[in-house]
Amino acid sequence: MTDIGYVRSDIVDARPAPNRTSGPVAWMRTNLFSTPFDTVLTVLGILFLLWVVPPLYGFFFGNAVGPNGTVEECRMINAGACWAYISSEMEFFIYGFYDIPEQWRPNIVFALGALLLTPLLIPRMPFKRTNIVLFLVIYPILSYFLLAGGVFGLKVIPTEKWGGLLVTLIISVIGITLSFPLGIILALGRQSQMPIIKTVCVGFIELIRAVPLITILFMASIMLPLFMPQGTTVDKFLRALVGVTLFTSAYMAEVVRGGLQAIPRGQYEAAESLGMGYWQRMWFIILPQALKHVIPGIVNSFIALFKDTSLVYIVGMKDLLEAVKTKNDSALEWQSANTATTGYLFAAMVFWVFCFGMSRYSIYMENRLNTGYKR
Amino acid sequence: MSQPSETTVERSINTSHMQISQTDVAIDVINMHKWYGDFHVLRDINLRVMSGERIVIAGPSGSGKSTLIRCVNRLEEHQEGQIIVNGTELTADLKRIDDVRREVGMVFQHFNLFPHLTILQNLTLAPIWVRGTPKAEAEATAMHYLERVKIPEQAHKFPGQLSGGQQQRVAIARSLCMQPKIMLFDEPTSALDPEMVKEVLEVMISLAEEGMTMICVTHEMGFARQVANRVIFMDQGQIIEQNEPEAFFSNPQHERTKLFLSQILH
Amino acid sequence: MTTFDTGQKIAPRASFFNDPVIRGIIYQIVVATLLIGFILWIIGNTAANLAAQNKTTGFDFLWRTAGFDISFSLLPWTRASYYWEAFLVGLLNTLLVAVIGIFFATILGFTIGIARLSSNFIISSLATIYVELIRNIPLLLQLFFWYFAVLKAMPAVRDAIQLPFDTFISQRGIMVPKPLPDEQFVFVWIGLALAIVTVIALRYWAKKRLEATGKRFPVFLTSIVILLGLTSLVYVISGASVSFELPVLERFNFRGGLQLPPEFVALAFGLTIYTASFIAETVRAGILAVNKGQTEAAQSLGLKENDRLRLVIVPQAMRVIVPPLTSQYLNLTKNSSLGAAIGYPELVNVFAGTSLNQTGRAIECIAITMAVYLIFSLLTSAIMNWYNGRVRLVER
Predict the structure, then answer these.
(1) H helices within chain C, ranges in order?
(2) C-beta atoms of A223 and C363 within 8 A
(3) Do residue B79 and residue A16 have CB atoms under 8 angstroms apart?
(4) Which residues contact C6 (CB under 8 A, 6 or more apart)?
(5) Which residues of C touch B114 (CB under 8 A)?
(6) Residue B62, by phi and psi: left (phi above 0), alpha (psi -120 to 50) or beta?
């Protein structure tokens, strides 16, 4: 080994990859045709797409009857989706039986909600605390009076008339607003050193999580009136809210507990060493950190809650899904082969847009939090 | 990046077995290039390793040193040039890859022990399923190598119960159980606490003393001085300089080598 | 400086109200009192309400005749059956749809979860679209879709769509041939049992042989040959035969065959599709949780791909997958209660619905129904605790 010493005289500059590692051909080689089995899968996948996509396109667009179409067109033998049905019943799907001249009131509620929610979701926006108080306390109260009426000369509109997307949104927003603090209290109770409080909280959380929401709504619907003093009537809307809130708070408690457990012991000890009382420690030190940790989990519970609102038909509320179902079954003037399908697809699209949007947001927050903790 | 250090092992090293073959080529890398997508990670690599050589590859992080040794047992695929290990050229042919991997052991920075198996099962898994060794024999071999790395008493524990240094020694023993002709070390001590580095280096030195062909990517310059017969310096995906350790450390030629050594040796 | 004397003096007493122990006790007493008061208030109200409505309480109604029809039952059911039988019918129907849903959702979910990780762009995209589409739409909506928009839109019985193997789809659900094994067929079952025992023995032998000599034996292929071969051999030798009672279309309905009612089909299908999307995510997360270094270590030891998966990757992934998978199974069982909304006679529908309405025993019916789900849940978590204790990776 005489030639062991070696010094490079000229540095090799980077040169572009041969076609085999970059460019569309390389992409197809690695992602579509890397092995014979892979090629078979690709071919099967393409065949599947060819089989599925054209009929779907035809149903949704090609042969579909547009929003301005007529029921006769929808009844034609090759007609696709009947979007005309959706556009003609849109008001019912959004507001239910809410009085038509008063629909500006829900509209304001929607707009106000969007206005308050947007800055809340953008992490960089300031005044978070004020915003939260506005959104979680002032907004629901204001919305209630605006929607229900009876003050400032607004016409009274009973909750029986509320319906459609309006109800879906109200129940999910109020459900989350109420179940959030309840969930925090339950989670703190579960972590508590006091045996009675701990037992009560654990029992409640585990019982609620063990049973399906439908049984809790049955209970709210049938047993809540029995529990109240004689002569009290419990509004249907309130029954739905109680059921949904109790249910969600148990799940929320578990999410919050995850956050509490993720806080290092040192934080508890540090707070204690500063001479803070229990509630001070929780409010100023522990909860802000724990809740920030579990924002994705909270959003996920919200998605679940949003989907679960479709069950409030059990107490007789007409949420979006129930509104669509009612029209599908009863709108004789729109009867055609595809009316029901179109109705459900419309509802599915609305739910999907909301849930998918929220799940993207949760992933975005998760990545943000992850980078916050990585060094 | 982990702190490079100068851990040395205070004992004289027995060089009697450290014979380097003049004719027997263990690894031959010829005009090799590799890209990650559009990034040219390895450029014009030429490296011939003779049987019994002990090579240390040094260089700043991101210089492609780990990628190079990962190409040698085809954990990474190269796009141009040739890599010939023990006379077998690495191509996409799975049989050849298996042949090469059976002869080449690899030790990773993060040990990569199988956490669901005991130490003994970690060691016997490959001999039983790859070589078809009877279990009793594989276990005897495993115990032999566990004694070599001085932890036979841990045989029935799980990896999670061992310290980092012990885990890395088990990982070395696991590779040795396949009786490889070549050992590759990919920063074996970078993830270890300082006091554990030494116990791993001891094992590596004893391997060198037995004449094992080794390529080590490491920041342990003390180890390089004591054991290596060649030090290779890589930067920007290419071999910048190579020399015997004495000459390499005392008289670096290339500007980049000088810069690197001045940073790493203070 | 202070001297530290331990135990000699009693620590200076905090003032009565600032002692944390006493405070804790006071808090608890307050909470317990409020809670008990609240419960008593509810009980009082309930009693008053029930009295006002002239309703009685108690579980005696379980031994009264129910007098209603149940459209689908695994047990013999007549209008003269008792309420406790109605409970059993509902419970069995819940279990039936849950077991079938779990079976298919597991297969579909694992397939899609693995497909999401495929290096093939088309396959992984299709799997991603499936997951993102399905899990963001409420299950109830999906059930309505399958039941009202798809199954109810099927042709009427007399125009039923005929599929291969004498299967028909119509508004009334799916009709399949009903297998009628003859008396000799019992031997085939015995043959199958024998084959299973043989396969288990073979696996054991192959493992012992591998350990002793290092020789591998193609267990999987041989097992399939034994299972199919031995069973069909017995079938031929014993002269057993299965005749099929084919569904025959008559004027208004089908005669013969096995009828799967549309409610059952829609519910089982909907639960499978929905839960599979969650199982797929569980599986994907489990596989991703296995460090890439594990594959590399196995590769560098020369293990072939099959062995890498079987010996290194799958055992580790399963530890991560099984706990959330179980809770998905539990969710599926709970979600089967949505069958009530499309008229499938499962527990909630039969017991918390019809029976409750007929007897007026709201508290009893709902309590029993909830207790059933609570027992499911407790059983599952007991099994999970046992499993987790068994497979937990030992840490320092």
Answers:
(1) 20-52, 83-116, 121-134, 139-144, 185-213, 219-238, 262-289, 292-300, 305-307, 314-335, 347, 356-359, 362-391
(2) yes
(3) no
(4) none
(5) 294, 297-298, 312, 316
(6) left
* CA-wise closest residue to B204 among B177, B223, B190: B223
pLDDT, tens digit, 9 for 90 and up, residues C368-388: 999 999 999 999 988 888 888
Residues of C in contact with B118 (CB under 8 A): none
Q: What is the distance between the alpha carbons of residues A133 and A122, in angstroms, rounded to a whole number? A: 16
What value, to the nearest 5°, has the Cα angle with vertex B217 and ends B215 and B219?
Answer: 135
Flag if B20 and A1 touch (Cβ within 8 Å).
yes
DSSP-assigned beta bridge partners for residue B25: B50
Q: Does C122 touch chain B (CB under 8 A)?
A: no
pTM for this model (two decimals): 0.86
SS (H, E, C) C280-341: HHHHHHHHHHCCHHHHHHHHHCCCCHHHHHHHHHHHHHHHHHHHHHHHHHHHHHHHHHHHHH
Nearest-CB residue to C337 (from A195, A215, A321):
A215
DSSP state of C177: P
- The ipTM estimated for the assembled molecules is 0.89
CB nearest to B75's CB, from C299, C312, C393: C299
Q: Which of A211, A218, A341 sits opposite C153 (nearest CB)?
A: A341
Break chain A into its structural domains and give their ranges.
83-98+157-369
Residue C5 has pLDDT above 60, yes or no: no
Q: What's the mean per-residue pLDDT of chain C?
A: 85
Eight-class DSSP state of A161: G
CA gap A116, A106 in Å, rounded: 15
Q: How far apart are the first and last CA of chain B?
A: 16
Q: Is C248 touching B (CB cutoff 8 A)?
A: no
Query: In what helix (H) or strand (E) does residue B106 lie, and over which residues does it extend?
Result: strand B104-107
pLDDT means per 10 residues in chain A (375 residues)?
Answer: 70 78 78 84 93 90 82 80 84 84 83 83 77 81 82 78 87 87 90 85 91 90 82 81 91 89 81 79 80 84 90 84 87 82 92 92 81 46
The predicted-structure confidence for A113-141, as pLDDT tens digits, reads as follows 888 888 877 777 777 778 887 887 888 88
Q: What is the pLDDT of residues C54-95, one digit of tens each?
A: 777 788 888 888 788 888 888 888 888 888 888 999 999 999
How close A182 gets to chain C, by Cα (Å)? Answer: 15
B145 contacts B177 by C-beta, under 8 angstroms: yes
Do B32 and B42 touch, CB atoms closer than 8 A? yes
What chains are in contact with C, requiring at least 3 Cβ pairs below 8 Å? A, B
Between residues 197 and 256 of chain B, which touch chain C (CB distance below 8 Å)? none
- Does residue C333 contact residue C347 with C-beta atoms inside 8 Å? no
Architecture of domain C83-138+262-395: Orthogonal Bundle (1.10)
Mention the CATH class of domain A83-98+157-369. mainly alpha
CA distance B57 to B75: 18
Contact state of C211 with B128 under an 8 Å Cβ cutoff: yes
A341 touches chain C (CB under 8 A): yes
CB of B88 within 8 Å of a chain C CB? The answer is: no
Give B-chain residues touching C394 at CB under 8 angstroms: 157-158, 160-161
User: Is there a contact between A21 and B230 if contact means CB atoms under 8 Å apart?
Assistant: no
How many beta-carbon pairs under 8 angstroms link A with B? 56
Q: Which long-range contacts (CB under 8 A, 24 or more apart) does A338-341 make?
A: A338/A59, A338/A74, A338/A79, A338/A80, A338/A81, A338/A82, A339/A74, A339/A82, A339/A85, A340/C148, A340/C149, A340/C152, A340/C153, A341/A81, A341/C145, A341/C149, A341/C150, A341/C153
